[in-house]
Amino acid sequence: MIAHEIDYHIYGEEMQYVEIELDPQEIVIAEAGSFMMMDNGIQMETIFGDGSQEQTGLFGKLLSAGKRVLTGESLFMTAFINQNYNKSKVSFASPYPGKIIPIDLKQFRGKFICQKNAFLCAAKGVAVGIEFSKKLGTGLFGGEGFIMQKLEGDGMAFVHSGGTLAKKELQPGEILKVDTGCIVGFTQDVDYDIEFIGGIKNSLFGGEGLFYATLRGPGTVYIQSLPFSRLADRIIASAPRAGGSSREEGSLLGGLGNLLDGDNRF
User: Are 214 and 176 in contact, with CB atoms under 8 Å apart?
Assistant: First the structure.
């Protein structure tokens, strides 16, 4: 598998976007909805799956697209082709505050495993597939279910994380314990499992769930400080209730109610 060689530049701090420079006839694939802007002469085309199964006929295309459905993604992806005679640029934006991570698959021996919805875009030739958890407990309680995404090939891919990004290089046998939702991705040699927090008080009143993930080296791990699910929960908790008022607005105690119920997190 030989992916297209693309150049890129990442702009911004909290709300980033990646600008990709394409040579004539070079192609980049992206998730639907991530497109930001492009030069005139770049052609956009909707394709089944990730476009890496073009030589396998209709069945191969359907199989590639079906794998994406299992990870909760759309059947389709978008390919951007440079039809100009000179270099042209196309940009893709992150969906929420966080960091865009460039992944050179050559450095990771051709494979990188990431959470669902983390994939942003990649050079044509990178295969976006599924990675099944081999352990029942990990699949049931690991936060990402039985299926995660895997990126395979020898080109550049870009994934997105929420909040601040932490990169950890684990030594052989070294263990890192992480909130299950805070994992962005890891290399193929990392052993991923879950562990029960333990203790009745921790389980019932700790507010951190019943399990956390254990990542055992060797390998590289990317951790995010703000999973989108956590951000969404906070937004939903603060959204106006029936009647058009938020938790404190228009209530009997007003702002004093916030002090009494302990909601001082914002």
Answer: yes
- For residue range 143-195, what is the model confidence (pLDDT) as tens digits? 444 578 889 999 999 999 999 999 999 999 999 999 888 899 999 999 988 77
Tokens of 81: 């082709």
Residue 233 in this model has a pLDDT that exceeds 50 = yes
Q: What is the pTM of this model?
A: 0.77
List the 165-170 sheet strands across, edge first: 127-132, 147-152, 111-114, 183-187, 219-224, 165-170
The C-alpha atoms of residue 176 and residue 173 are separated, in whole angstroms, by 10
| CA atoms of 126 and 159, how far apart (whole Å) | 13
Q: Are 101 and 160 in contact (CB under 8 A)?
A: yes
The Cα-based distances of 118 to 43, 49, 122, 181, 209 in angstroms read: 25, 16, 12, 12, 22
Q: How far is CA 18 from the centre of its chain?
A: 15
CB 58 within 8 A of CB 5: no
- DSSP class of residue 189 equals T
